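Hi R.,

Here's the chain you asked about this morning:
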Amino acid sequence: MTIEQTLMERSGAQCELCSSKNDLSVYPVPPKSDASHPDHCLLVCDNCLGQINQSNTMDTHHWRCLNDSMWSQVPAVQVMAFRLLNRLSSEGWARDLVDMMYLDDETREWAESGLSSEESAAPTLDSNGSVLNAGDTVTLIKDLPVKGAGFTAKRGTAVRNISLTGNPEQIEGRVNGVRIVLLTKYLKKA
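And here is the predicted structure, written out as C-alpha cells:
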C-alpha cells in the first residue's frame, strides 16, 4: 500500500485539516519530513497546502476548520493545527483554540520545532532570566491592576498555558477567566 493510499484510508479520502475532498496530496510535516512514513505526513487539499506554504495568503475564515481538526488523534494533524493556530494568533478565536489544545510532550516539541524563526528570534525571558515557552506556567511576582477588567491580578497567581507574543517582553495568559497581556518583568517561571 502506498503512502497516499494509507493516508486516503486514514482520512476517509478528505483533507485532514478542512475536510475538502478535492485535489488532495501528501504533505510531509517538517522537520520530520520523512514522506515514506504515514505518521509524519497528512493529506491536504490544494487550498490548505497553498496557505501552509505561503503564510501571507492565509484566509482566516478558511482556518476555522481547525476547531474540528485540532482534536484529531493523528500527531501530524495536531502539529499542523497547532502551528496554523499560532500563525493566526492575532485572531481571538485562534488564541482560544490554542489555549484549549492538549498535546503530549513529544508532539508539542515537534509542533514548536517548526514554528517560524521570526517567532523564536528573541527569547522571551521571565524576571529571573529563565526562557519562557508557549504552554509554560508562570507566577505573578507583583499585584497588577488589570485595566478595563475591573480587578487586580494578585501576587502569587499562577498563569497556566501561556502564549508568546511577537514582543519578547510580553506574554498572554488567562487570569480570572480573562485573557490578558502580561509584562515578563512581573513574572517568574513556575
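One quick note: Helices lie at 3-11, 46-53, 66-69, 75-87, 92-100, 105-113.

Cheers,
M.
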